[in-house]
Structures are given as structure tokens and as C-alpha cells.
């Protein structure tokens, strides 16, 4: 099976978007380490690993359907943040952009009657529902915490337990 040039370009953009997400989440992990919030940093390192795994899935699929990776610009990661809440609000916004991009790609696959790519993308649609819901929950928790340092350090301890599991599921 061979994909169209148009789908190949869009899949390439998606691959780069996942790589950019990984770099962005590493920049956030780095910010948290400077704030002595190592659990939050661990959460974002695991999140970055998940994004690189998503990129790898695109890489493998593109080659399975006889396409190839064409190097594109990686978005410059943001490095300055006002607070943990600010980081999670930006992450949520970013995940919503990724979801929209995957939906646009799915729509194009449907228009081109590319059922293989359409099927491949179903996993990502499901994944984005989880990603958005996770970041939404974190934003709500941080709003509840407000300026309570004890609650923030409790959450930091919780987040230190997150591990990336290669299946895409999380421990
Ligand atoms: Fe992703
Ligand atoms: Fe994501």
C-alpha cells in the first residue's frame, strides 16, 4: 500500500509536531527542576518520552506505506513559565492543537479514501482524548491547590511515581 504525496506531507508534519511536543515537555521538566519540583519534572520527562513514542509510531507507519521522513523545522520550545499552573494551561492548549491537527489529517484521509491511514489515526484520536483529559485534570487540581505549598509538594510526590510504559499506556 502506498500513501499519496499529500498524506505523506501531513504525516510528516504530524511526526514533527510529536517531536516538538517532546522537546517542549523536556523544557517544562527543566523548568520544574529549577523550582525544586522534581516530581513535576518526572511527570514531564515521562510525557516527553510518550511524545517521542508517538513520533516513532508515525515514523514506522510512514515507512510501512512506502513514504519517507522529510526533515522539517522543529518548533522552538518555550522555556519561561510563570507557575506550575501556567505550564499545565499551556500544555492543555498545546494538546488541543495536536488533537485538531490529527482530526484534520483524519478528515483528509477520509476524503482521499485512504482507509489504511484513517485506521492508523484512530489510535491517536483515542490517545488525544486521554491527553486532554489528563492535562485538564491537572489544571483543575492546581487551581484547587492555589498558593498552598503543602498541597503542591503533596502533588509533587504523587507525580514522582509516573513512569512511561512503551505500550503508550501509563503506570
Ligand atoms: Fe503525542
Ligand atoms: Fe501529547
Write structural notes for this entry.
With 171 residues, the chain is mainly α. It has a single domain, classed as Ferritin. It is built from five helices and no strands. The mean pLDDT is 95. The structure holds fe (ii) ion (2 copies).
Top keywords for this entry?
171 residues; mainly alpha; Ferritin; binds fe (ii) ion
Indicate the topology.
Blueprint (H helix, E strand, L loop, with lengths): L4 H30 L3 H27 L19 H28 L3 H31 L3 H11 L12
Please summarize what this structure is:
The protein is mainly alpha-helical and 171 residues long.
Q: What CATH architecture label applies? A: Up-down Bundle
Distance between the termini: 35 Å
* CATH topology-level name: Ferritin
Q: Structurally, how many domains make up the residues?
A: 1
Strand percentage lies at under 5%
Text of the CATH class: Mainly Alpha
Q: SSE order in H/E notation?
A: HHHHH
Mean pLDDT: 95
Radius of gyration: 17 Å
List each distinct ligand once. fe (ii) ion
Number of distinct helices: 5
Report helical residue fraction.
over 70%
Q: What does the main sheet amount to?
A: none
Principal-axes geometry comes out as elongated
Low-confidence stretches: none
- Name the CATH superfamily classification: Ferritin, core subunit, four-helix bundle
Number of strands: 0
Class by alpha and beta content: mainly alpha
Amino acid at each position: 500500500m502506498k500513501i499519496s504525496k499529500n498524506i505523506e506531507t501531513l504525516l510528516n508534519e504530524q511526526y514533527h509536531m510529536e517531536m516538538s511536543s517532546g522537546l517542549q515537555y523536556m523544557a517544562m521538566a527543566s523548568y520544574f527542576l529549577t523550582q525544586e519540583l522534581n516530581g513535576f519534572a518526572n511527570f514531564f520527562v515521562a510525557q516527553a518520552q510518550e511524545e517521542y513514542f508517538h513520533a516513532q509510531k508515525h515514523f514506522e507507519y510512514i515507512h510501512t506505506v512506502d513514504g519517507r521522513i522529510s526533515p522539517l523545522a522543529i518548533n522552538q520550545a518555550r522555556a519561561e513559565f510563570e507557575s506550575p499552573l501556567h505550564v499545565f494551561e499551556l500544555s492543555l492548549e498545546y494538546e488541543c492543537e495536536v488533537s485538531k491537527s490529527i482530526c484534520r489529517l483524519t478528515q483528509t484521509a477520509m476524503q482521499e479514501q485512504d482507509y489504511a491511514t484513517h485506521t492508523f489515526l484512530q489510535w491517536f484520536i483515542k490517545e488525544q482524548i486521554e491527553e486532554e483529559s489528563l492535562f485538564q485534570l491537572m489544571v483543575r487540581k492546581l487551581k484547587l491547590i492555589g498558593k498552598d505549598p503543602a498541597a503542591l509538594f503533596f502533588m509533587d510526590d504523587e507525580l514522582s511515581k509516573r513512569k512511561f510504559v512503551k505500550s503508550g499506556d501509563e503506570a
